[in-house]
């Protein structure tokens, strides 16, 4: 098989939903594969059965597809190197574990959980770092036969070198070296026949002919152990690139994997499903995540996938940790929202409104979109800005009708004049503007003072999309009904001291 073809993989464990950090790792692998005309593989590392979460896989796949990170080989897609679920490859790990034992690079360990626990406690009491004491590394044939006769099912452990150093080169970090004395004889195959992460990961990266490994830098400590395995098996390791950690917006700590709420009540999404639910566009997320730890040049932020792919390469990945700026994401999402054709934006807002309980028809939404497109940063912002198009505003405080420099009496007068004028006004943006400005003038009121009660009456809010466009879409009947309701509310409240 051609060895100069780039093959990279994203290898999530289905132990939780996909978070922004995982998505960034997947995206960098995807971009690298696309840049080099190679293949991007999705491999599911599902051998840790205790941490398995049944709906995590669907979430990971949905989230990747939503972002446009499509895999060339993997679940639901297939490919020549399958199966792509580690739980379906157990025979392979067993085969290589046995092979390592035969070659004298691994050994069977019969230690009971109780013995291991006692060992750990003694190590802790002596202030030593925990690690297997290699009790079974030099068992005699007789001892082994005894254990076997007792029916004890062993684990298989790697015979780590006792001295010397292990080094590997990382494209982002340079050369990393560890003293072999710091490595214990890790388990490769558990007694239930399941591999550990280390064995399965190395076997699959080799069998799937992975050329480059891009993964989070929390895996750096595992890599020397993997080197030892590659060497023992006579395999050439892939090229490594451990991606810098993502920091929270303050740049001080590692970005949390859980959603956080700030004192001012703002929630920071972390999972891709949360960004999606919060109304971020997938194309904005794609663009944004590409720039977490990589840059196109020193000035361009808004980039198409094609531009990113054309330039994405490993040497440009920044070794320094990157802070996750929600402000920048909001800004970027706004840019993408403003660039959408109105019909497209309407289609995306419709389900968000439906979620909020509003049955919005597309033709109406397409008329509303131009009024709000410049003002929203997320799709969800559209709910607060358009809900009154779909339901009469309710429960607003009648005092809001009274503008800052207005009295209740003047406000009532304004509402009545508006009601009067709007019976016959031409219900187009231009027609409404003309009639209402003239009405304000005839009352000797400033246009702003005159418009405030109208705005509050029809929207229930003091801040709304542009008034005339809003009225035109609502139409005469609804506008008149809401104005009447407002003047009734105001007379009933009959406030003596406006505030
Ligand atoms: N299954 C590991 C994870 O969940 C994969 C690490 C790697 O890429 O080697 O992150």
Give a topology summary.
Elements: E1 7-10, H1 20-35, E2 39-42, H2 56-67, H3 90-103, E3 106-109, H4 113-125, H5 141-149, E4 155-158, E5 165-170, E6 174-179, E7 187-189, H6 197-207, E8 212-216, H7 223-233, E9 239-243, E10 246-247, E11 260-261, E12 267-268, H8 272-277, H9 282-290, H10 305-311, E13 322-323, H11 326-339, H12 342-355, H13 362-372, H14 381-386, H15 408-422, H16 429-443, H17 447-459, H18 467-474, H19 476-493
Parallel strand pairs: 1-2, 8-9, 10-13
Antiparallel strand pairs: 3-4, 4-7, 5-6, 11-12
Care to describe what's here?
There is one protein chain. This protein has a 3-stranded antiparallel β-sheet with strand order 3-4-7. It is mainly α and 499 residues long. Helix content is 44%, strand content 10%. The longest helix is centred in the C-terminal third of the chain and has 18 residues. Strand 1, helix 1 and strand 2 form a beta-alpha-beta unit. Among the domains are: 155 residues, HUPs (Rossmann fold), CATH 3.40.50; 96 residues, Arc Repressor Mutant, subunit A (Orthogonal Bundle). The N and C termini lie far apart (79 Å). Helix 16 packs across helix 17 and helix 17 packs across helix 19. The protein binds glutamic acid. The site of glutamic acid has 7 residues, from loops.
């Amino acid at each position: 098989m051609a060895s100069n073809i780039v093959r990279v993989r994203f290898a999530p464990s289905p132990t939780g939903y996909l978070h922004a950090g995982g998505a960034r790792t997947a995206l960098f692998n995807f971009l690298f594969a696309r840049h080099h005309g190679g293949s991007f593989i999705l491999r599911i590392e599902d051998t840790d059965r205790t941490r398995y979460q049944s709906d995590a896989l669907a979430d990971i796949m949905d989230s990747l597809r939503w972002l446009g990170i499509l895999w060339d080989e993997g679940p639901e897609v297939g490919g020549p190197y399958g199966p792509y679920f580690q739980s379906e490859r157990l025979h392979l790990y067993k085969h290589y574990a046995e092979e390592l034992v035969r070659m004298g690079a691994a050994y069977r360990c019969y230690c009971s959980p109780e013995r291991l626990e006692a060992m750990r406690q003694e190590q802790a009491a002596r202030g030593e770092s925990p690690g297997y004491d290699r009790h079974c590394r030099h068992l005699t044939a007789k001892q082994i036969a005894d254990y076997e006769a007792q029916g004890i099912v062993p684990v298989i452990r790697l015979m780590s070198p006792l001295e010397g150093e292990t080094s590997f080169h990382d494209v982002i970090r340079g050369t990393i070296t560890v003293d072999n004395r710091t490595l214990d004889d890790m388990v490769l195959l558990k007694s239930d026949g399941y591999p550990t992460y280390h064995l399965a990961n190395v076997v699959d990266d080799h069998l799937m002919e992975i050329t480059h490994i891009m993964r989070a830098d929390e895996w750096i400590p595992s890599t020397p152990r993997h080197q030892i395995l590659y060497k023992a098996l006579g395999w050439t390791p892939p090229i490594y690139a451990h991606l810098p950690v993502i920091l929270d917006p303050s740049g001080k700590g590692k970005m949390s994997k859980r959603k956080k709420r700030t004192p001012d009540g703002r929630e920071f999404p972390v999972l891709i499903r949360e960004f999606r639910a919060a109304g971020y566009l997938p194309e904005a997320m794609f663009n944004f995540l590409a720039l977490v730890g990589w840059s196109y040049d020193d000035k361009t932020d808004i980039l198409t996938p094609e531009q990113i792919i054309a330039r994405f390469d490993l040497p440009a990945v920044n070794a320094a940790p990157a802070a996750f700026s929600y402000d920048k994401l909001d800004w970027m999402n706004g840019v993408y929202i403003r660039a959408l054709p109105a019909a497209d934006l309407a289609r995306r807002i419709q389900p968000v409104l439906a979620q909020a309980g509003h049955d919005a028809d597309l033709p109406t939404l397409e008329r509303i979109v131009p009024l709000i497109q410049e003002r929203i940063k997320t799709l969800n912002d559209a709910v607060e800005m358009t809900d009154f198009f779909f339901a009469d505003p309710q429960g607003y405080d009648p005092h809001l009708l009274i503008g800052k420099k207005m009295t209740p009496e003047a406000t009532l007068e304004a509402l009545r004049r508006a009601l009067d004028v709007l019976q016959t006004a031409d219900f187009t943006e231009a027609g409404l503007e003309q009639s209402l400005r003239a009405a304000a003038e005839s009352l000797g009121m400033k246009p702003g003072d005159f418009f405030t009660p109208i705005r509050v009456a029809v929207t229930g809010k003091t801040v709304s999309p542009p008034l005339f466009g809003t009225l035109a879409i609502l139409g005469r009947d609804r506008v008149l009904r809401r104005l009447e309701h407002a003047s009734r509310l105001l007379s009933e409240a009959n406030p003596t001291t406006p505030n």
